[in-house]
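so the lab meeting is tmrw and i was supposed to have these ready like two days ago... anyway. pasting both below. for each one the top line is the aa sequence and the line under it is the structure tokens. i havent really looked at them closely yet so no promises
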Amino acid sequence: MNSEKTAVVLLSGGMDSAVVLAIARGAGFACEALSFDYGQRHRHELEAARRVAAALGAKGHTVLPIDMRAIGGSALTADIDVPKDRDDIGEGIPITYVPARNTIFLSYALALAEVKGARDIFIGVNALDYSGYPDCRPEYIAAYERMANLATKASVESEAALKIHSPLSEMRKADIVREGAELGVDFAMTHSCYDPDAEGGSCGRCDACVLRLKGFEEAGMTDPLPYPA
């Protein structure tokens, strides 16, 4: 693959998006990382995103401010308790779902791709070991890609189609951990917890922590992040 090709990579600072950035870099793309300060409960994931972007050689890293707290409706953007110790993860749509978040994020990624001359967007959605968010499903990504190829100047003026890559979509967390390890991702740089303490320590009990810990355990590896005893 031509190493001069540019891709926009959505980078949250979590484990999955870090692996996706490593995958895109390994495929020869010059990566423009894109993160969002969208009114989430804490800034630890943005700090992690900056670490990951620098360590994995992103060509650029844009952090866009969006006030999704003004919309609310989610435990990640409103004063709603984050669910803990759920035994039905993946069943139904939890209150940590942020309304239309991936649609909004992909729209900004599409705009940045046009400006940067990129025809590829990478996103770390997963539809197997996940919390049940509807905008993480493969059929959603496919539908968005079809729309994107109708909606932009680049798609009208060029024969080259825009591609949205979701390489983790059908992978279990354990497989994502193994893939990241093979690509040299330092998982200690990442942050996944929905409800960390003031110092950024993971709670070990929210959906994100439970799924992450499950992935490391099933991969036969130890998560380098500290958790409460």
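ok protien two:
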Amino acid sequence: MIPSQIVLFFRFITRKQTLKPIYCGICLVLSLPPWGFWPLAFLAFAMLDQILKETHGTKSRFFTGFGFAVGWLFPGTFWMIALTVPGYFIQGFLFSGLYALSTCLIPRSMHRLIALPAAFTLIEAVRYRWPFGGVPLATIAMSQSDSPFGQTARVLGPLFLTAFVIICGMAFAMLWEKKWKHASAIVSVLLLIWGLSAIVPNGSAFSTIDVAIVQGGGEQGTRAINTDEREVFERHVEATGLIQGNPDIVLWPEDVVNLRQLFIDSPERSELSNLAQDLDAWLLAGIFERLNETSNANATVAIGPDGEIYDRYDKVRLVPFGEYVPLRSLIEPFAPEYLPVRDTVSGTGPPNLSLDLSDNALDAGISISWEIFFEDRARSAIQNGGQILLNPTNGSSYWLRILQTQQIASSQLRAIENGRWVLQAAPTGFSAIINSDGKVLQRTSISEMKVLQGEVELRDGLTIATRVGPFPMIIISILSLGTAFACSRKDP
């Protein structure tokens, strides 16, 4: 016999009124890459605000927030099915539940104008860090990577941009209610913040270098276990032959040098050294090597024009269930066969590569693949002296274009937040050159063999976001939510 609670729940979610939050969530996901209709993010939060205003009772408000998050997160992270089906559903329901809980703290009074942005910003902060180091996918900030308002991220980072987006939604909600004074006040504050973002420190250029980003091409949606490692390597050697002139650095994607032994002892090490000498350039190649029977390493090595290895960065922030299995002893008996047999070992060094160019020493910050989604990795690289930011990545295993476009958006946000140019290299796309304002100057297509070449700026100086990090916004959000909740309790 079906429990009565399940029957009630089914009836609840099938009501037309209950579907409205899901429609709002779908509106938000359409503002994200690959769709990119960024004004819809404001509309989504305006509609959510109006629904919460009319929703009574803790249970109803919980399911309003839950439906909104389900409509947003499940389509926005759909690519995860190719990585881990259980993980896709677990993270979707987990984070939907967190957003649902946060809506229970949002009052129906005008204090919601403060509480809604604060609550959702806090949950975004949680998603950036938990579980397993964070799952910052399909984030609210990504919706504005191509919009004029994305520039506000350099003030206090992606959480600041998150709050900005939601407050924009509140302005639309006030216009809908014809509360002109509230709407005018909110719009005035938003315009002030937007104007401030144009004059806050953004670093400055002091030199330029010529770069080449190599994309070997090949079929999208193929797994490493079904791919000839040597074929991938040779495809990138061939693509490197398309380089024109004499660039200062040549960037290869993540783990296209896939080895069943230590890199130092491999024939590919000699081939790459010869290639760097032929190019008379620094060659930065992504390697994936087997350390022993239980562990791997994922790194980028810096090979000088003389063929010698001068520096190496081992990836620190690893993909759970992709590069390592959390709680392996508990999960593996129930996991599908495609879980990694060996865990990748996390690096411990700073996210920087030192390259001695002919004119000057270059400090290249680096965030390998998954790390570009985390603002703290790029911020550490720039605080440590990074004059440019590299993102060698490999999304060739994943179908559709959701992940690839969201990674470009993340690279754009990291560029804006830190005032640095970003170079993204992927084996099957997307590779890109992004300037310090987050504008994509060049981008490849999926599966094509291509080299991106151009002159890019080396920059120094720190933005406010680079200096202070996320904690001011976390503190502001906690205080704002607490104040709004306390004041609402005093309302008649």
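from a quick look at the 2nd one: Residues 30 and 63 are 21 Å apart (CA to CA). The domain at 205-462 is CATH 3.60.110.10 (Nitrilase/N-carbamoyl-D-aminoacid amidohydrolase). will dig more after coffe
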